[in-house]
């Protein structure tokens, strides 16, 4: 096998590893939140997780999205669901953003951009793509919102959680 052929196969294989889809086990991560507390996905098994990637703290769209999730967080907690927002911003910037908007969930700092890459939320620019994963209590990706429409974002999440609840009760 030629070196060129081997590089081609490795490249194709690496692309296939990056394309997460519904039904896949969500990749684990270890990231710090705005309070310098580490979180892993694995530690939240038994809970559903909304893992949303967003470009940047304090921008209009990101603020609207975060505040809308803040506003339904009690409802999400009643549905056994934890929310994590992820961007490249630092813990300190996340803390300022969270405090200013009274956010009631963790914002995780992906300064190395490695988790965004794992979840196909990295961009060719310097910001995260806006993308949301709904992960079930077994760590399986139940739904991917991509592209994200901030107007319909929460209703999609709640609908997916309702369908998971129905599945669990059957």
Could you please describe the fold and organization of this structure?
The protein is of the alpha/beta class. Helix content is 39%, strand content 20%. It is built from five helices and seven strands, in the order H-E-E-E-H-E-H-E-H-E-E-H. The chain has helices spanning 3-18, 60-78, 91-100, 114-118, 153-169; strands at residues 30-33, 38-40, 48-53, 81-87, 106-109, 131-135, 141-145. The protein has a seven-stranded mixed sheet with strand order 2-1-5-4-3-6-7, with helices on one face. Strand 4, helix 3 and strand 5 form a beta-alpha-beta unit.
Q: What's the helix and strand layout?
A:
Layout: H1 3-18, E1 30-33, E2 38-40, E3 48-53, H2 60-78, E4 81-87, H3 91-100, E5 106-109, H4 114-118, E6 131-135, E7 141-145, H5 153-169
Parallel strand pairs: 3-4, 4-5
Antiparallel strand pairs: 1-2, 1-5, 3-6, 6-7
Keywords for this structure?
single chain, 170 residues, alpha/beta, Glutaredoxin, seven-stranded mixed sheet, 5 helices, 39% helix, globular, disordered N terminus
The poorly predicted ranges are: 3-17
End-to-end separation in angstroms reads 51 Å
Q: Major beta sheet, specifics?
A: 7 strands, mixed
**What best-fitting shape do the alpha-carbon axes yield?**
globular
Beta-strand proportion: 15-25%
- Here the CATH topology equals Glutaredoxin
Total helical segments: 5
């Amino acid at each position: 096998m030629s070196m060129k052929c081997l590089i081609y196969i490795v490249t194709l294989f690496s692309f296939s590893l990056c394309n997460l889809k519904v039904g896949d086990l969500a990749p684990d991560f270890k990231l710090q939140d705005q309070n310098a507390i580490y979180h892993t996905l694995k530690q939240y098994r038994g809970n559903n997780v909304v893992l949303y990637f967003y470009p940047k703290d304090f921008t209009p769209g990101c603020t609207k999205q975060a505040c809308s999730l803040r506003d339904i967080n009690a409802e999400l907690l009643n549905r056994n669901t934890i929310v994590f927002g992820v961007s490249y911003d630092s813990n300190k910037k996340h803390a300022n953003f969270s405090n200013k908007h009274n956010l009631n969930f963790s914002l995780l700092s992906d300064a190395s951009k490695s988790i965004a890459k794992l979840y196909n939320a990295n961009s060719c620019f310097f910001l995260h793509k806006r993308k949301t994963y709904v992960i079930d209590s077994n760590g399986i990706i139940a739904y991917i919102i991509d592209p994200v429409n901030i107007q319909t974002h929460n209703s999609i999440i709640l609908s997916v959680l309702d369908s998971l609840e129905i599945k669990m009760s059957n």
